[in-house]
Amino acid sequence: MSNKIGIVTVTYNSGKVIEDFVMSLNKQKYKEFILIIVDNNSNDNTLEIINKVDIKFDYHIIRNNENYGVAKGNNIGIKYCEKINCNYILLLNNDTVFEEDLLDKLLEGCMKHRVSVVVPKIYYYEPKNLIWMAGGRLVNWKGSAKHFGYKMVDNGDFDESKYVNYSPTCCMLISIEVFKKIGYMDEKYFVYFDDTDFCARLAKKRIKILYYPRAVLWHKVSSLTSNAVSEFSFYYINRNWLYYLLKNEKGFYKVVSLLYFIVKRTARLLISNKNKRRLLMKTIIDGIKLYCNQNIIEYN
């Protein structure tokens, strides 16, 4: 019996990358999948390109009337996949490209190692042999996570399968049963740290993540969000980092990670201009509000 994969991708002004993404899916040897495109109210030509390109597989478009963010967008897609009885969910960024055997290899990892969550080796799109992620781990004392192999030229050091407790959800194959055990993505994050939170909840339930390097893809990093120095990224990374550590770290690690956050952000305050200092204060206030379940206005 074939395993039906529901591939969930969230689009928001993805016109520059969506065609290459669809072409990669067209080439897949494994055919038992459906692509769920959750569009967060794109105002570019994303949907126009999707409607024009030659798509050779089943797909379904869900159009949101506003930008709900990545976490809620993923949840909308996951819930749709549950309704159509998918066995697996593949959370997959559309700023990625991959070879014809990606789905085969991810499923191979699941079956061979009898696990519920599998992630591939991920390279930068350019240069092709530069690793972006070869598995990762949660770093409790920082309240964050680390990529293995980050910005290293691939020389074979990361060719062995292993269990990890962190990986970004830009490509993660997940058994549908996992969501019954740990719930969906935390929609408070909007963007950034939603995957770290998801992995932390996997770890708490002792659900293993298998890093399986026989599956590979290439990631056009930061092509759909702003770069790390933009106000958008600055706000969400810092706000969500604080929310994440308040929510997930406990006892000693909560104290240490909070101190680390305070020291890092204080240093940032000292070297920032007035506008950046004002924005940083907003990130801290909003991070605390999120943790206390108070309403905030998303930063766009």
In the residues, how many domains can be counted?
Answer: 2
Q: What is the β-strand count?
A: 12
Q: Would you tell me which CATH topology of the largest domain applies?
A: Spore Coat Polysaccharide Biosynthesis Protein SpsA, Chain A
Q: Mind summarizing the main beta sheet?
A: 10 strands, mixed
Provide the β-strand percentage band: 15-25%
Order of helices and strands: EHEHEHEEHEEEEEEHHEHHH
In whole angstroms, the N-to-C terminal distance is 45 Å
Q: Identify the overall geometry.
A: globular
Number of helices: 9
Helix content: 25-40%
What is the radius of gyration computed over CA atoms, rounded to a whole number of angstroms?
19 Å
| Poorly predicted spans | none
* Overall pLDDT confidence: 94
Instruction: Please state the second-level CATH architecture of the largest domain.
Output: Alpha-Beta Complex
SS content category = alpha/beta
Q: So what's the CATH class of the largest domain?
A: Alpha Beta
Summarize the structure.
The chain has 300 residues and is α/β, with parallel strands linked by helices.
Q: How is the secondary structure organized here?
A:
Elements: E1 5-11, H1 18-26, E2 33-39, H2 46-52, E3 58-63, H3 69-83, E4 88-92, E5 96-98, H4 102-113, E6 117-124, E7 131-133, E8 136-139, E9 144-147, E10 162-164, E11 171-175, H5 176-182, H6 194-204, E12 209-219, H7 231-248, H8 251-271, H9 274-291
Parallel strand pairs: 1-2, 1-4, 2-3, 6-12
Antiparallel strand pairs: 4-11, 5-12, 6-7, 6-11, 8-9, 10-12
Helix pairs in contact: 7-8, 7-9
